[in-house]
């Protein structure tokens, strides 16, 4: 049964699917859905802002890789203690202005976080004669005048032999683990150690080059500095050979919040940009609220062709006849009869079919089951049942009108002399098709 006829075909006591009250409640439900939608948008925006803030702050308890003061597995406290036991002084510095490098000092630049400014890197390269560099930033490599390119990383725990390495510290170590970053270079003067891969895919974990300002060792095999891998193979020997060759080691670690960090996009933006972004955000919210308001009333459009209601009804009847949908056709007649009878009995348009059945049974003296069988009924299997159902509807409507006409006549006869009785509107016989 289609949606328009659900009210007439619903059994007694079951709410109708389409009533005028439902139509009146539709705008209210649309407003509720719209408000709920805006609330959901605001909640999602707040959640995203909170998540962004949480990610931006990071976890203060998370250990920093290669932290010289950390005893965690990713820290480097073990190497620092061994260096100090060997007589090498280790100074941890986070500000390039605090670097006081002597001619015999070694500087470890730990830019594994990739925050070092290129200008600061050039200044360190000019003042430090012996630099051990840990970075994957091509700009920092260029600032130290190292002709090498980052070639990815490897998590392999494979041990590579360094017995024939041109770097003395690596040759003394004999072998190292290759876990860490790898590099590629086209400069034949660059000394290379700790290979990964074979043939044209060979990458290197340890490079050394001599520049105009001094010597730079590019350390990609950072496993030689970690607490959990320093004791494997010859990692400890390589770390001591690279960092403990002098009397003092300056362990320089730039931080993102420090003055040596490269400027971010927010730092490069003019001061008025945050305020402009805030204003644009408010404008966007206001525009969304403005354009998201409730639509106005429907506008009646003048159609080029006007189709009479009778033609529409006949067209629908032909469709029902073509598909032999007798039940749907009779339900259409039932729905129209319910509305006309309810209007004749003075019931509102929102009255339920059960109320129409009860009032009709009361005024006609028939049982509610008998009236309900006519106005609600069930499926229609053949043409005889369709004709009988239409005739029963027509007879019931005439019975209601006769009763209402009799009540109006009695009211007219009982009116006082000199008081005109209200005229009874003429009734027009209706055809069984449900059209007056």
Please give a handful of descriptors for the protein shown:
alpha/beta; 7-stranded mixed beta sheet; two-stranded antiparallel ribbon; 14 helices; 11 strands; 44% helix; 13% strand; disordered C terminus
Question: Could you characterize what this model shows?
Answer:
It is built from 14 helices and eleven strands. α11 packs parallel to α14.
Largest sheet: 7 strands, mixed
Number of helical segments with 4 or more residues: 14
Cα-atom radius of gyration: 46 Å
Which structural class matches the secondary elements?
alpha/beta
* SS elements, strand count: 11
Terminal CA distance reads 24 Å
Low-confidence stretches: 1-24, 417-436
What percentage of the residues does DSSP assign to strands (E)?
Answer: 5-15%
Order of helices and strands: HHHEEHEHEEHEEEEEHEHHHHHHH
The average pLDDT is 79
- The rough form would be described as rod-shaped
């Amino acid at each position: 049964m289609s949606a328009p006829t659900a009210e007439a075909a619903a059994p007694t006591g079951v709410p109708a699917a389409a009533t005028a009250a439902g139509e009146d409640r539709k705008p209210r439900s649309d407003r509720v859905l719209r408000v709920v939608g805006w609330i959901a948008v605001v909640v999602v925006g707040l959640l995203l802002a909170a998540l962004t803030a949480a990610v931006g702050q990071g976890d203060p308890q998370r250990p920093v890789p290669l932290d010289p003061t950390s005893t965690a597995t990713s820290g480097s406290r073990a190497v620092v203690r061994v260096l100090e036991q060997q007589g090498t002084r280790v100074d941890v510095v986070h500000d390039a202005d605090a670097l006081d490098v002597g001619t015999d000092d070694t500087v470890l630049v730990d830019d594994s976080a990739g925050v070092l400014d290129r200008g600061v890197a050039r200044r360190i390269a000019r003042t430090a004669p012996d630099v051990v560099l840990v970075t994957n930033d091509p700009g920092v490599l260029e600032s130290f005048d190292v002709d090498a390119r980052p070639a990815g990383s490897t998590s392999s725990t494979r041990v590579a032999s360094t017995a024939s390495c041109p770097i003395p510290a690596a040759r003394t170590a004999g072998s190292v683990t290759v876990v860490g970053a790898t590099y590629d270079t086209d400069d034949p003067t660059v000394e290379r150690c700790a290979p990964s891969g074979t043939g044209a895919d060979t990458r290197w974990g340890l490079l050394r080059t001599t520049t105009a300002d001094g010597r730079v060792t590019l350390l990609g095999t950072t496993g030689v500095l970690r607490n959990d891998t320093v004791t494997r193979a010859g990692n400890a020997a390589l770390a001591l050979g690279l960092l403990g060759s002098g009397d003092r080691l300056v362990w320089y670690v730039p931080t993102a919040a420090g003055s040596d960090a490269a400027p971010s996009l927010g730092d490069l933006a003019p001061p008025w940009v945050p305020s402009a972004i805030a204003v644009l955000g408010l404008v966007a919210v206001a525009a969304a609220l403005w354009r998201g308001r409730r639509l106005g009333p429907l506008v009646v459009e003048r159609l080029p062709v006007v189709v009479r209601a009778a033609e529409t009804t006949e067209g629908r009847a032909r469709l029902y006849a073509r598909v032999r949908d007798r039940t749907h056709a009779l339900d259409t007649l039932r729905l129209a009869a319910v509305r006309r009878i309810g209007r004749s009995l003075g019931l509102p348009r929102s009255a339920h079919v059960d109320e129409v059945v009860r009032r009709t049974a009361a005024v006609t003296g028939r049982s509610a089951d008998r009236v309900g069988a006519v106005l609600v009924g069930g499926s229609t299997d053949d043409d005889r049942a369709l004709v009988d159902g239409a005739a029963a509807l027509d007879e019931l409507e005439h019975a209601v009108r006769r009763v209402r006409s009799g009540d109006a006549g009695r009211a007219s006869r009982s009116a006082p002399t000199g008081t005109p009785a209200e005229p009874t509107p003429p009734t027009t016989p209706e055809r069984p098709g449900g059209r007056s």
